[in-house]
Amino acid sequence: MDRQQHARLDELMRDPYPLYARARRAEGLTYVPEFGAWLVARDADVREVLRRPNVFSSANAVRADATPSAAAQAVLGLGTGARRRVVITADGPAHQRLRTPIVRGLTPARVAAVLPYAAERAAALADAFAAPGRGRRTDVMGAYAMHLPGQVIGHILGFDPADVPLIVRGGHSIERLLFRPLPEDEQIAAAHDMVALQRLLERYVRDRHTAPRDDLCSEMVASLAPDDGEPDEADPADDAGHAAGCPHELTVGQRGELVSHLQNFLLAGHLTTTALIGTTLLHLLRHPAQWKLVCEEPERIPAAIEEAARFDTALQGFRRVTTRAVTLAGTELPAGAEVLVGFGAAGRDEGRYARPDVFDITRTPVARHIAFGLGAHACPGALLAREQLRLTLELFTRRFPGLRLAGDGAAVRMRPTLIHRSPEALYVTW
User: Fold this and answer.
1) Burial level of 214, CB count in 10 A (0-12/13-18/19+)?
2) What range defines the domain where residue 313 resides?
3) pTM above 0.85, yes or no
4) Which of 25-29, 36-40, 230-234 has the lowest average pLDDT?
5) Which CATH number goes with the domain that contains 183?
6) Count of domains in the chain?
């Protein structure tokens, strides 16, 4: 993809809602050349795709928009190697195997157990940007939203807090490298961050395999690389190590899978929640009367979170590929056809929501949205994300009831992505 094509794609992703509206009005599906896929924009059609994973495979759920330069690829070669199948790109039993330890690690009880830590970290971040002498203006993305979710997910995994900055930086570098056209020096820097993150994760994988702890990282390792002496079937060369009498060593394939799985989990666990914090605050502050309402009536905070997720979800869409010929919304799709499942488009569907383009935390009745997915691939971290948003809004409405956008709120620039949609920066004052 050349720079001109990237510029068109950037413009489309910064504000995809006009495209969504046209696609919902059109007969059948709309093919979008910039995405190289058929856009599924109506709520009912999105739900149909998500309920039929045997027909609409997740194998291509996320596809890179940029190809790293040869120099950046040389750096990437120092990492863990080829990307392995992860939970968002797996189907059937393979998907269930990868998903199971995540679901066990994010039960309501485990989420509840991490909330005191999350609240303490949220308060500390607010203390830092609101400290006396710092002034009453800050970029809430850089000062708060880009830190809290990484700290929380790192705590759940059992990582050293000193490693969290690398985890956060590495996650954002991966997204920039694979989805943005960067100068070569920035590509190389991002590739080094990605390799550093992979090496850190491999160290944790080895450590937790040798000495398990009561954390999610240990649970993932135990679940995906059970200490039963069986080699990874994807890496037959590893058989030699087992035959030589090393049944308790992780194979190359197991290490690679675990590093890829942890990397994917981290990206989903902190980038998406970071984005949700940003968009939720943005839309509440663009509607001062609604911000005032949640300040005066904090019991409305859960409804505000759901409305923000419906109105402008962080995860705008995932790709799917058809496993056989199928007809969807009257459009005949051959086997191997790519579709983009528009969660963001479904959230503005006129057939499901009254005044869908209006942000209104008081709307009733509230139709259940699918911002966190549906079916086999529904987000297992939805509760954790919602709880971090709840803590954030409770904290901010209590400490900063006069919070408002600094300058012209209409000038806030959204990041050009469909997987972690959020403000590039969100300057506020109070």
Assistant:
1) exposed
2) 3-429
3) yes
4) 230-234
5) 1.10.630.10
6) 1
